[in-house]
Write a structure and sequence with these properties.
Structural class: alpha+beta
Helix content: 25-40%
Shape: elongated
Oligomer: single chain
Largest sheet: 4 strands, antiparallel
């Protein structure tokens, strides 16, 4: 059964008594991230049952669940980052040109 985008939800559950949280999600990016965490920390992050419609659930330490607001940068910070990124792009292009000449 194909679910609509509205029906493909992510649910994070935890309570004050337990040290673990449960994450149920249809979000593919989050599923990949949780899978990588399970591979790296199999004793802390473990999968639950698949539901048959594309949703996966994982259990992990609830202290890993965070809500982080985006950084607000000043115009000066944005210009500085743009300059750094531009220099990196130029260096990378130079390295590609040098390696292509050999």
């Amino acid at each position: 059964m194909k679910l609509s985008r509205y029906e493909r939800e992510t649910i994070i559950l935890y309570n004050e008594a337990d040290s673990n949280a449960s994450i149920y999600t249809h979000n593919e990016k989050l599923q990949r991230q949780l899978k990588k965490l399970h591979e790296k920390y199999p004793e802390l992050v473990y999968p639950g049952e698949k539901n048959g419609s594309g949703g996966l659930s994982y259990t992990l330490p609830k202290k890993w669940v965070r809500i982080v607001p985006p950084q607000v940068r000043s115009e000066a910070q944005k210009r500085g980052l743009a300059e750094v990124n531009q220099r990196r792009r130029e260096r990378k292009k130079e390295e590609q040109n040098v390696s292509g000449e050999n």
